[in-house]
Amino acid sequence: MEFTQKHVLGLKELLYKMADDQLILGHRNSEWTGLGPMLEEDISFSSMAQDKIGQSLALFELLQELGESDPDTVAFTRNDNQFHCSQFVELPIGGYDFSLVRHFFFDHAEAIRFEMLADTVFEPLAMVAKKFKGEIKYHTMHADIFMKKLAEGGPESYGLIQQAINDNFGLALGIFEPGEYESELIEAGIFGGENALQSRWLAKVVPLLESFGYTVPKVENTAPALGGRKGIHTHHLQPLLDEMTEVFSIDPGADW
Amino acid sequence: MIIQSLDPRISRARLDDQSCDGQLSEHEHFETFEVFQQVKRGTHHQHVGSLHAPNPEMAILFAKEQYCRRGKSVNLWVVKTSDVFVTDYEDADIFETTEDKKYRDPEAYKVMDRINAYKARLNP
After folding, report:
1. CB B55 to CB A149 under 8 A?
2. Contact across the interface for B52 and A141, Cβ inside 8 Å
């Protein structure tokens, strides 16, 4: 099937939101480096944050092949209203409970998204999806074990995680905000769509958390934090971008 | 007195050394695990180091990032350090007698002469 202009626009929109989610959450999670609850977990969490930045680079490179600017320009010279990340990923790290539950919700969505993209008709993206399969599998394994062990750890850890699940759930639903070209992406076989992704994500995370003893809020009773995909962000994103681009902005033309 | 540590996080926490009474609960002081890495299927697992973790599952998680971030791995073992039986350094003399028993080394066998002769024939 020949791609029309709408297919290409939809594909770019998809790549931008994925790459921006990874870049911003990777940056956020790296804020824990040196502050993690214990040395070993500090190393693990920081390493996963680096993985996310690396994954975003691979997607920005695909965008460059589709005619967008080079990865550095795209990552470091846009303002908050040009970013397509969900509001969920831009929020401050909060406590470790908040960051862990965000990691759990986001990385399961990410894993399923990449699973769905493993047979996309846009082959370069299928290759990227396969390349990062193992990395993302470790991320969800890490998240699952933490959720399980903290449920077993006693009323304090269980209570903190349960509260963070309640606080995160509506924010996480913002990941699945539909884009403008959902039907084009589905029809062309590029991506199965945000609705399908959300259903598969719910079918994965809800039974899993319940098996650990947590209660998950109902989708019907939860307002999703929408807007991020359309460039509407919280006041937390621009300060993050200012910090992230601080060095780059000193000399944007420098050769690294 | 405020504890001064090489770890900036400890110094920042401004802990009073009088506040530590030496009693730590199980979850305040994790035990250590020994990590064994296998780089290729069929080869030996090799000891690569140790780490702190609250349980074996999390020890595996941490070991993966701490010891297998670079280079290839296919499998990991973690073992509680307290489960490893060790010899005493005072008993190190039990190993001493093996040194002079050359007949236990492969080179002491006569077959080595024939192998070397064969090698010499192959690569004159």
Report:
1. yes
2. no
